[in-house]
Amino acid sequence: MLKSSSPPTIEKLSIKLGMLFSKIPISANAWTLLSVVPALLGFVSLLYKQMLYALILFAISALMDAIDGSVARVTGTVTNLGAYLDGMMDRIVEGLLIFGLMFMGLPDLTISKYSIASELLLALLVFIGTAMVSYSRAYANYKRVIKNEKALKEMGGLFERPERLLLIFIGMASYFIAPIYLTYAILVSLILSIVTLLQRVWFVVKNAE
Q1: 182 in helix, strand or coil?
Q2: 117-131 pLDDT per residue, tens
């Protein structure tokens, strides 16, 4: 939602971020590729059950992901290759985060008498949130169901990657209060990702050419 709508405040912040980091002699594509490094370190931190380090490292990765697009716009180096690399690295980083959380031994969610394994929730979030939400737009473009690039960008949805990461980061921070809060955050992320997927499918149906 935030990524697609680009409110004026966020757009201004993006420009300032681009102006600041464009002074560093690193290309936008290099920023994109470098964002995987802290994510890998964050994944290792989760393997060793170091939640605080993981949270910090994945937050740094998210910041670097914001920097690459901002630098590209400010320096006039926006390219299709850059957009491709950005999308691929986004999927890798998010996959590392969610798969890493599987090693934390998160508490299962109990609703009434039924118990839902946290690993199942995470696996579904990988499939629906990380894969299917992005795939819905890419496949509509690939099959030329929607040919208008502007319409594709407006596809959006309630719960895109920035919101998903933010909610999971909040859950990771709340882990220190009670681990179950992170499980709740994952469940809510999954539900909102399903809603977003349905929104995107309906958008394609309505705007099919």
Answers
A1: helix
A2: 999 999 999 999 999
